């Protein structure tokens, strides 16, 4: 695994993007340790399905009510 230092990556971003477009993976490092990976973007093959989480997420009835101490800190009064 070859690590490209972050300062070199800044100076050679266009060349690194070309490598990624050709199918290579680029690892960017800081102080010799890998911190990021550049890979080719691939669009999702499945279209988004609206409502996929319908009835799976519940929001409490008091979701919008601040605890008394927070309401006081914001100069508000809970109702």
Structure description:
The protein is of the alpha+beta class. It has a domain at 3-38. The chain is built from 3 helices and 3 strands; from the N terminus they run E-H-H-E-E-H. It has helices spanning 6-11, 13-21, 68-73, and strands at 3-5, 26-30, 33-38. A 3-stranded mixed β-sheet has the order 1-2-3. A hairpin with a 2-residue loop joins strand 2 and strand 3. The chain starts with a strand and ends in a 6-residue tail after the last helix. It holds the Pfam family PhdYeFM_antitox.
Number of strands: 3
Q: Which structural class fits the helix and strand makeup?
A: alpha+beta
Order of helices and strands: EHHEEH
Rounded to an integer, what's the Rg over CA atoms? 24 Å
Tally the helices. 3
| Distance between the amino and carboxyl termini | 60 Å
What amount of the residues lies in strands?
15-25%
* Shape call: elongated
Helix content: 25-40%
Instruction: Please state how the strands of the largest beta sheet are arranged side by side.
Output: 1-2-3
* Largest sheet descriptor: 3 strands, mixed
Mean of residue pLDDT values = 89
Low-pLDDT runs: none
Pfam families: PhdYeFM_antitox
InterPro entries: Antitoxin_Phd/YefM (IPR006442), YefM-like_sf (IPR036165)
Function: Antitoxin component of a type II toxin-antitoxin (TA) system.
Family: Belongs to the phD/YefM antitoxin family.
Give structural attributes.
79 residues; three-stranded mixed β-sheet; 3 helices
Q: Quick summary of this structure?
A:
The protein is α+β, with helices and mostly antiparallel strands and 79 residues long. It has helices at 6-11, 13-21, 68-73; strands at residues 3-5, 26-30, 33-38.
